[in-house]
Task: structure prediction
Amino acid sequence: MPVVRDLRILLRLRDFRRLLAVRVLSQSADGVYQVALAAHVVFAPEKQTSAAAIASAMAVLLLPYSLIGPFAGVLLDRWPRRKVFVYGNLLRAALACCTALLLAGAAPLWLFYASALCVTAVNRFVLAGLSAVLPRVVPRDHLVLANSLSPTAGTLAATAGGGLAFVVRVVLADSDTAVVLLGAVLYLASALAALSLAAGLLGPDRDAAPVPLRAALTTAAGGLLDGLRHVAEHRSASRVLAAMTVIRFCFGALTVMVLMLCRYAWTDSDDDGLALLGAAVVVSGAGFFAAAVLTPWAAARLGRLRWMIVCAAAAAVLVPALGLWFAPVPMLVAAFVLGLVTQGAKIATDTVVQTAVDDDYRGRAFSFYDVLFNVAFVAAAAAAALMLPPDGRSAALLGGVSVLYASSALYLAHWSRGRAVL
Result:
């Protein structure tokens, strides 16, 4: 098969393999760290975790992506990128060690959040840099495959890291500190892997004097606004982004509810609750994978807009049908369905935006999309924190989410009436 042949060619490229090792080790550490954060904030036996605490944890994990993301590229174009990988991962290893000390010393929760926020903020630079340097280690005719392989490998590595963290928690009692230290070791390994790359390989080139930092940051902020204005001028892009924002909001609210159910409603043991949450994450991931397989086929036959309508309408019906039982098995089925419809809608949205927006504005449009996507999730967590009871059982939340899904489907159906199918 051509894809298999191209994949073999990619893996023969020494610098690509080394860069992939940096990504895999870094994102596996991210998976470990995220499980440690969830375990400490949500599943610590001595804590009576609230939905507000979960919302705060999600803000710590996601807001750096939204606030720093648009400006990360400006700094990555000024700093030697290999040093970003080396020093960024060393800094995260040190911060993870600080987090372990905070856990061992029973420090205030806000101090733990501050440490975690620093780790995820640095992560934004590392992940953006890993994407930016791919053209320097991969021939142009294999770049599409490399862009597909690298993020997929990173996602699998993060999942494996989370699984490894669960194993550590099973083997060792009261092991949050050990889990965080495991993440620190993996960050350190990623920094060492980055040292194997040649110093000048990853750029940036210094053929011209760099733009002053203040001017570059101002340009980045202006570019984000330009992207917003350009998307607003293209109705197909702005409509699907609006619908996708609502779908992402719904997914975020349901995520908080499942966390609370795992913590208080379904198990008597914190470890069992964490294991059940891990099962929900795996099942949802299977839904994401199913969406990647099914969406190209469905979009080709229905059109991208109609596929988004099907996804939103299916969620509107199945969320209350499966969720109102407030039982683990139906909710795990719902997790698969939500993973499928959320990712299916996102793939369709990505494609519509890519095709509708002018090439000169595409990067800025996707920067705006990235901010919108993550802010919607954090806003959903905050809204769920206001609605959810202590055990997570809320028919009102399920009903509200179902109405939002149905509204997205009706909005897209009304707007697309009489128009050519995208």
